[in-house]
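>> received
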Amino acid sequence: MRNAITAAHVLVFLVAVCTGGSTPSDALRYLAIGDSYTIGEGVSREETFPEQLAVLLRARGESVGDPVVIAGTGWTTPVIRQKVLDASPRGPFDLVTVLAGVNDQFRGGSPQTYRNEFEALVGEAIELAGGRHAAVVIVSIPDWSVSPAGQRMNRPNVAAEIDRFNEVNRAVAEDFGTRYVDVTAFSREATDPSMFASDGLHPSAMQYGEWARAILPVARQALSEAQSSSSR
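>> returned
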């Protein structure tokens, strides 16, 4: 949730958006949109949940290319949407994940304002998925108050606020007909220090692995539908 992006993460962002990595032209295309939880503050690119998800998908026979990532530490939902518009990634994508809202909550934003901004962001994500609502997977906001750094805050209040923001993004998912994955429960079980990066705030590769495994079945459904529709 810091305002700065590390140099390594800037490089990941630029390479992914501008070149799409070394992805074969016939590979399924995955776009990950979000904030520090998507860019993976404090971990390597390979340890982020989008990269771990791609590895899991390939292990199950899905021909998924390198994730295209538009994400940055400290980005609020309107900033994320503007960054997506600025990057203008080439669609359509077969799978799009969206994780946004923790910085809106952290900076004292209201759930209603968040809803308005999040709806606009999800609309952009659906457009980038070629208009296929079911190809978009909304990921819930994790509860950062359980982290070593978060324990210095008023944990019950933070948890309650995150619940209210997650009520919004779940409702938006239902309204838009997108898919939804709850990783908040996993984050609240992450009480061991090994589940956090060295900053004591963001998840470690181990915790991101839990998220990737939770998203996996939903992502496979989305990709299966994408392949079915393209073969018609």
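>> Residues 46 and 125 are 23 Å apart (CA to CA).
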